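Protocol step 6 of 9: fold each sequence in the batch and record its structure tokens directly after the sequence line. For illustration, a two-sequence batch is reproduced in full.

Sequence one:
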Amino acid sequence: MHISPLSVLLGCLGSVCFYSGFAQQPMDSITALKEIVVQREIPLDIIPPKTLAGESLQRLQQYNVADALRYFAGVQVKDYGGMGGMKTVDVRHMGTHHVGVYYNGIQMGNAQNGIVDLGKFSLDNVEQITLYNGQRTTALQSAREYASASAVYIQTKRPVFAEKKKSNAYIKYTLGSIQWVNPSAGVELKVNDKVSTSIQAAYLYSNGVYKFRQKRLNLDGSVAYDLTSYRKNSGIESYRIENNWFGKDEINTWQAMISYYQSQRGLPSAVIKKSDITLDTERPKEQQGDKNLLMQGEWTRWVSPAYQFVVKGKFAYDQLHYTSRKTVDFEGEEVTYNPQFDNTFHQQDWYLSAVHAITLTPYWKVALATDGQYTKLRATRLGQGSPFSDPERYAVYTALSTTVTQGAFKAQATVLGSFTKEKVRYNVQAPDRSFVTPSIFISYQPWQHREFILHTFYKHTYRLPSFNDLYYTQLGAAHVKPEYVRQVNVGFSYQQVLAFSFLKEVNLAVDGYYANVTDKIIASPTSSMMRWMMSNLGKVENYGLEAQVKTMWEPVSGVTAQIGLTYGYTIARDLSVLPGGKPSYYGDQIPYAPWHSGSSIVGIDYRDWSLNYSFIYVGKRYNGNKNNDKRNELQPWYTHDLGLQKQMKWRDWQLLFRVEANNLANQYYEVVTNFPMPGRNFRVSMRVAI
């Protein structure tokens, strides 16, 4: 059988490589010529992402995606305490709203507040978590993927079947302190040689009651008080069910998903000292109920080696029911809150995207992506006279990208056009907007036989104000402008397989960055703490250094060890100028931005045993604008987590037993001020796979 040189050349074009093989492999390939077949697109990332996948991901003693993201350099997770507290992610201190979160390739959204709560996503069914600073640089991506300052991709597990097997199933049960109960189950079915499906379901309950310690200082640095109590109103009960479908034939791949999530959680209040002997830990009594339905799908077609297209879309319906009712405080006094909140928000999100990629020469590829999105928000607010704005937003995004690959040189340039139209039923409408934002990514490999790559990028992005920013009666202001971000990044990555008997592999990545955020949206209180004013007064300048190293060891025969370390150093200065001039905190580090942070993951394997250790460190921070105020200073915190697991086989069943100790040193700490985190806690789990 003869394979022509032209066919081989067409197998790797532009920024996309295709596996090649013979026609006897029809199941995982598409036919380019009778003698040659071309497989799925393999993205060649110009700037390597940060990734946790497979065994490395499972080694973490973490339950949700937000906790796993802590192990990436440059990432800060804001955790508002307890099991039911919201968990959001911030990359390089540009703000949570500038991080795009993608679930199976399609962006998650929340038009109401612009924030994705990553605490909702369990790791049980997650195959890989990937963080891109800037963006992915593959050609076949939607226009929305170019619009974020950074992006987190969550990929669920795809079914893999052993020879002659047509089904897989598992049951997992986890028990833990803090009344933690978390059963889950899943089944995978091979419908035929081209189609498979998986169904997963999980339940989580915790009463959220745990011991904490709170220590506060006076202005002169002396101890104001040091008390111990128990966290309350932090419980959660949630259900999740998800059904994924995967298909593949000679020229198409597709996947579709439907998921439903429902939860009832207490929203833990700030812990504030109320008198000499009491702490106010549950005032007001806030509860949040969520119902989230998501349907999405993606279809990719390889028309020829020179032309491919992708169509993807989704529908999401989110209902949030928020209540805050009067309670009785610890001294028996009835406290009345005005107004009485009982709000239900209904949100719909419709999204459709089409991407076309054309290879013009063996070294040059262009792609055009066009997205359309429609979101609307309705609210039922009991006891409040003024009508809700009932906003709607129509958005169109168009991105034109060009990718050049010439030997050791790779580059991608993109121009993104964004056009939005606002519509409201009541009150003042925000203006329609249009933006054009560019980006360019470049990498160069100086030595052909060394995996040493230099890379850089420049990117200009923005973030639209959320519906809450614009229209919420007690927060919104329709005149608020979008935030703008300009980023510059320079770095290198190095990978080396070694011949030493004990050290097998080293991976190193170092990046320096600069980011400038202008027109930053801030909230300022008015005469009532229940009414705030939104405005654009902020400017933040960030720059720093990130480093990550991963190594593979074999100290003795039969024992393997994986060691990963990350370190981040950042300066995030508040350069906001107020109408009266520069404030006293001008040039200070912004709240909650540590100068130093780092993490470590260590895994040791011996036969069927695995010992896993992880460590997180966050340095000194301030919870207020002024850095010279001892009352605003937050001391460094760190956690040690340890896990031991054993695998075994009984008949045709694969058994996995795991014991975990989290926050082993029992450190009392707060990620967000007055929202204390759990101390030492334990979990045990058993997983049975058939």
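Sequence two, same batch, same settings:
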Amino acid sequence: MKNNSHLFHLKVQKIEQICLFELSWGQGQRLTQQVNYPTNLTLLYQEWRQAYLCFYQSEHMRGRTVGGGVVTLTVDWHAELVKAESKLMFEFHRWLRSAELYEIRATIAQVSQELVKGNPGVSEAVKVFLTCAPIELDRFPWEAWEIGTEFASAGAIQIIRAPLNIKAETETPQKKQHQRRARILSILGDDTGLNFQADKDAVQSLLRIAEVEFVGWQPEQTPSQVIQQISEAIACEQGWDVLFFAGHSNESDMTGGELGIAPGISISINEIAPQLSAAKKRGLQVAIFNSCSGLNIADSLIDLGFSQVVVMREPIHNRVAQEFLVRFLQGLAKHLDVYESVMEARQFLRMEKSHTYPSSYLVPSLFCHPGAKLFRIPAFGWKQRLRQSLPTYIEAIALAASLTLSVLPPVQEMLLNGRMVTQSVYRNVTAQIPSEEAPPVALIEIDAESIYRAGLPNSQLQPMNRSYIGKLIDSTRKLNASVVGLDFIFDTPQKDPPSGDRDLGTAVRRAVDANMWLIFGAILEPNREIGTNEAIGINKWNWTLQGYTDAYHYLVEMPHPQRDCRQACPIAYLMSLVQTANQEMTELPKPQTNRVTNLRAELLNVIQKKHPEKGNLPALLQLRSPLGLHPLIDFSLPPDRVYTKIPAWKLLENPDINKFPLISKQVVLIATGSDERLGIAAGQPDRSPAPPAITYWTQQDWLTGGEFLAYMTQHFLTRRLVMPIPDIWMIGVVVIFGKIAVFAVNRQSKLSPQLRRKIIAGSVGTVIIYGILALQLYISAAILFPWFLPSAVFLAYVLPATRKKHHV
């Protein structure tokens, strides 16, 4: 069982001229004493109140009515108030120090001393919950009673007021309240003759550690609208920790106190009792009424089960109320509890404002439910912020589903295809298709028509008739092609026809002697490239080049960052490098058949050592995949802007340079078409289903290996490398922004249907704008930002937050 020996309950009742002091504590201990009530104490209080009201002037009070006579201009009310306070406090202390109350004072002081001795270094205080009856006794400044001074008690003794009648239990704050920032509702009432700007500024100073919302009347509102607005705000489903009211108020025994919420409009505590009860169940613990005459208000709210209520027992001057509030809230901001904050504010008024605002420190009082723990704004550190940022059930499902989908290759391929089609449509609609004179690549394709016209039997298609390939090389030589790539593997001798290897070798030698750069295809093995076998007699590596054709059909094959291009190099990159070097350098080695050193090694050495500082070549040499990202093939570009497709038969039957004037400026790639009889081996045609974006442009069903290589080559030549941002990265970013948006929505105490629709429309609009921006950045900056999964996660975070109920 919790030890309550340091909690005292002191009940003071006045019956005619006798006051009964009853002190109870611990396990049923009780002390009872009777003491005569000094009749002049009431008179001294009335004189003090008269001087108090006259000094502060009724028009600046936060109350409706003021009694006590007429202000006389010739009277020095400051001096009169100081004198009246001295008389009142002297008589009040003399009465409380009477011999009859000695045992009560000694008991409290003794427990205070024992608490200090038993817990050295612990600042726990003795709490005395004081209950007075009738209300005339409540009007005295009991907080000024210094119980332990005559016993030299070193421990703190806190005098906290409690009402005579308390029917409701106080609510224990729910666990979730400790996992979020404190929430404060500030009601600004009737400001007739007052100025609430200082109050507002003081409350806003807590924004660093708490969520603050203001409600109050507006000139265009009707009385019923004002009352409804305040009632709904109090009963907000999210709940509040602190309720603050600034304005006019008055005592009222029948209604529990009245609050002026607008000029000529008041509501009683009894009228909003259902909303206050709902707010209490949702965590509302502290009510602060920076207004006049709040004794009835305090009694009513504690009776409803509120934990703590801070009120002004007397009418309060506007500037005094503001000074008190500033200091009180500064205490809360330092994470002091409510009692400590009230005492700091009272001490400030007493020590630093006693001349400007005499007696003001006697007016504030804290009422507390005896079973409640004193409230303080909890420190909201990184642990609480982390806990608050954890996903909800719906958010967790959306997050888990999106992350799972983001690592499944079939799903990623489907999303990428959909994005490429959308990107193609956007590029077409916005007329952002490249308009160069001609594509940088010429693709000579051996298609079904070429096979038919050449009369090639099926036995000479796999592997492809090399004599036929030699004829194509001869034709490109006659058209002055400077860089020619061959998407074929010549690793074994060809038997049909027997002259195939010899014819191809002859064509290769003639092309090399004409200074043509020939680049043969190869297959990449773990440690080397496997391509044309020199023993066959087709070529030598001293005067031809080789690059591997292996690549995933949706990604640009980049040079490996850890591998020297002298040993292994993608054929598309190598063709682009040679073409660019031919255009920007004059000191390149010549591909002649009388060379005796490896051409690729010498070529790369010369390029790296002697390349110009400016131009496309330095950029091409430095191309690498940033942050491990692999660039995509940009299928949003229509094929006719990437390469010129020339059927092989047309090149052979019309070898006129006037028919193919651009080949001399293009990289030429000789490859097979989509005919299923062609390919690496029987039953393995060199083709793949055309991506939907290609189908959008050309309606073709297949995309050949040569076409994939042509796209890659064009990307290298134009430095068009589209970097895809991984879904996981963007989902992480979206989670942050989504949570920020959820916090912003949750800070709204009320979501009207109109506001809810605006938030939904804004969220959907944000997703649409992001999608359009992502489409444009793809074209302008060559960055692919994923859209579908991040957008789905964002909406899954924000939209459920708009479904909360508004009030009970």
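Proceed to step 7 once all outputs are recorded. Observation for sequence two: The chain has a mean pLDDT of 89.
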